[in-house]
Amino acid sequence: MPRPTCSRCRRPLSHCLCALIPRLDSRTRVLILQHPDESGHALNTARLAALGLVNAELLVGETFGDALAERLADPAYSSLLLFPGAQAERPAPQSAEERPLQLIVPDGTWRKARKLLYLNPVLESLPRLCLPEGLTSRYRLRKAPQPGALSTLEAIVETLARLEPERRFDALLRPFEALIDGQIAAMGEQTYQRNHGAGHE
């Protein structure tokens, strides 16, 4: 029999994260495009980002058609894709005089995120932002596919902090860290150290 689950954070009621999820304002709108394979993961960081930001939305699918076109056509925002690329620029502080940004964030493994771009060609035409190399993930349960790789939530927090340095977005990481601590507690400290501890390759 399945355990009762919170309808908001999708965690078991005994491990509900809602009390830790903030409601933060941002001038930047965040639109997360989540591959369906990610939506059922226990560590669904994109959902935490969408719940914690007032000006954020999570769409789940492989092709987004009219829903994506409608959001990209909104004249109130200038849209950028958060994804590496040859012409990608680093996030920089935005002034109040500039049109607010709409940050489009693909959520999935690198392979699935690239597939989202392929299946939604309009994304390929957007200017890109990417974070600098050398950042360290707090995601202690999964080896990063490459140095500097962050979870979706961490990448959003880091990007917003650079776009809007006058605001603080660290509170978005509280449920994420609690989620990881809970997973480590469930597996046991010895198992965690053996499989994920310092020096583990």
Automatic annotation (TrEMBL):
<keyword id="KW-0808">Transferase</keyword>
<dbReference type="GO" id="GO:0008033">
    <property type="term" value="P:tRNA processing"/>
</dbReference>
<dbReference type="GO" id="GO:0016432">
    <property type="term" value="F:tRNA-uridine aminocarboxypropyltransferase activity"/>
</dbReference>
<dbReference type="Pfam" id="PF03942">
    <property type="entry name" value="DTW"/>
</dbReference>
<keyword id="KW-0819">tRNA processing</keyword>
<feature type="domain" description="DTW">
    <location>
        <begin position="2"/>
        <end position="188"/>
    </location>
</feature>
<dbReference type="InterPro" id="IPR039262">
    <property type="entry name" value="DTWD2/TAPT"/>
</dbReference>
<dbReference type="InterPro" id="IPR005636">
    <property type="entry name" value="DTW"/>
</dbReference>
<protein>
    <recommendedName>
        <fullName>tRNA-uridine aminocarboxypropyltransferase</fullName>
        <ecNumber>2.5.1.25</ecNumber>
    </recommendedName>
</protein>
<comment type="similarity">
    <text>Belongs to the TDD superfamily. DTWD2 family.</text>
</comment>
<keyword id="KW-0949">S-adenosyl-L-methionine</keyword>
